[in-house]
Amino acid sequence: MKATMEKIDNNKVVFEIEVPQAEVAKAVEKAYRKLAGKVNIPGFRKGKTPRNILERHIGKDAILDEAFEILASPAYGAALEENNIEPVSRPEIDVVTLAEDKDLVFKATVVAKPEITLGQYKGLKVAEKAVEVTEEQINAQIDSMRQKHGKMVVSEGVAIENGDFAIIDFEGFVDGVAFPGGEGKGHPLQIGSNTFIPGFEEQLIGVKAGETVDVNVTFPTEYHAADLAGKDSVFKVTVNDVKRQELPELDDEFVKDVSEFNTVEELKADIKNKLEVTAAEKATHEFRNEAIKQAVENAVVDIPEVMVQDRISKMIEDLKANLESRGMKLEDYMKYMNSDMNALRQNYHASALVGVKTDMLMEAIVRAEALEVSIEEIDAEIGVIAKGYGAELADVKAIINEQGKMSFVVDSILRKKAAELIIDSVEKE
After folding, report:
1. Domain annotation covers residue 98
2. Cα separation of 157 and 210, whole Å?
3. What are the strands, taking DSSP E only, across 158-279?
4. Same structural domain for residues 269 and 241?
5. Are residues 20 and 93 both part of a single domain?
6. pLDDT at position 373, please?
7. Strands, DSSP E only, in 232-285?
8. pLDDT of residue 39
9. Distance (Å, rounded) from C-alpha 404 to C-alpha 235?
10. Which structural domain, as residue segments, surrounds residue 188?
11. Are 158 and 237 in a shared domain?
12. Using N-to-C axis directions, what is the helix angle for 375-389 and 406-424, rounded to 10°?
């Protein structure tokens, strides 16, 4: 076999591959025997049909095509290996010469995985955020607890404020005529919830129970009822009651009722501690992400679009699996998000591009630093997987080996090592 390679742009290459005629003849004979064992021809047992009879029934080209399938894959694989090319797309095949008495000549056009040039990835400067918890954050947590245990009570004689619940009767009119579906009795509406037509709730602020007011609004142009979309309307609204949340007093008795603590000071101390832990975890996450981001930005690589699209497809498959685990379908999700597959893929494009470049960066660092993985590290990684499934390490390891996926485990460990190398070398600012 002989193969020549031509680069036609930064990432696309064309192989012209030649297979000697002697190999072609052998492949044709093998193809004939293979097809003879599959085709039923009256008067002959399977596998015993003479070649000239078989050719009359299925055509000589069918045998040549089968011979090509036998020869092309190993020849293409050898060309990749010989030229140290890692493909990231399926090859486009163009047969130049295919005959039993001639050398086989075909072209294979493929997108090759590009080379990445590492920039600075060690000794990067990253600012470390201070972990600080304010009194306002602690009070916000306590207010949330009070609201959770608050009660809605009728407030006599008060004017509606934002956040109040108004119990209302209403009827809507367009051009002075009541329209179907525009009437309600005893409807609870929280002011500020934005559940009614824009501008409706704000006009009830300041109104008291027992009062009737006209609320003037315009239906949105994309309103679900086409006969009302974009039209001006008047709602006659009567406020029956105003309900306001009554919060429990913040004292030791409240703390005892809603927590395992005995005093307000103990509760505040616990909330502060938890907020500090959360803030520290967030700061660490942001610090690590910033270090990786800088290393990725410092690297130079021309990423083929096919790699980005493959990553997007994987992201959508992951989304689909996640939705199905919660009893949802991808199609329903897209309808809910007012999206379609093209828009979804476009939304994922930027993050997919970064993801591909990040993976390539980690692979390059693994090579540059000659990083290796020990048996103990592999067992530790598989142990984490086994624990997640409540299984034994040996059983999970056996399954991974049977499925031929141990290389994925090794690659995962190496990528983590590369990331830790970047982060551990950071100069904190």
Report:
1. yes
2. 9
3. 165-174, 177-190, 212-218, 232-246
4. no
5. yes
6. 96
7. 232-246
8. 80
9. 68
10. 151-246
11. yes
12. 110
Question: How do residues 204-255 score in pLDDT, each as one tens digit?
Answer: 999 999 999 999 999 998 888 888 999 999 999 999 999 998 899 999 999 9
Total domains in the chain come to 3
Q: Which residues pair with 372 in a beta bridge?
A: none
Same domain, 53 and 163: no
- The pLDDT value given to residue 404: 93
Q: Scanning the structure block, which residue is given the tokens 């070398």?
A: 425
Domain boundary residue, one of 111, 138, 161? 111
Report the alpha-carbon distance of residue 318 to residue 310 in Å, rounded.
13
Q: Kindly report the pTM of this predicted structure.
A: 0.75
CA 289/CA 263 separation, integer angstroms: 39
CATH number at residue 80: 3.30.70.1050
The span from the CA of 144 to the CA of 146, in Å, is 5
Whether residue 323 sits in one domain with residue 179? no
The first and second tokens of residue 79, run together, are: 């060309």
- Same domain for 16 and 78: yes
Strands 12-19 and 104-111: antiparallel
Mean pLDDT for back-to-back runs of 10 residues, the chain (429 residues): 90 96 95 86 77 86 95 96 95 96 96 96 94 94 93 91 94 94 94 93 96 95 87 96 93 95 96 96 95 97 96 96 94 89 95 96 97 95 93 94 94 96 93
Q: Tokens for 390, please give them.
A: 């409540």
Tokens encoding 301 = 């690589």
Buried b (16+ CB within 10 A) or exposed e, 225-264: eeebeeeebebebbbeebbbeeebebeeebbeeeeebeee
How far apart CA 97 and CA 110 sit, in angstroms, is 20
Amino acid 243 reads K
pLDDT of residue 46: 74
- Residue labelled with tokens 């021309």: 302
Single residue among 190, 219, 246 that ends a domain in this structure: 246
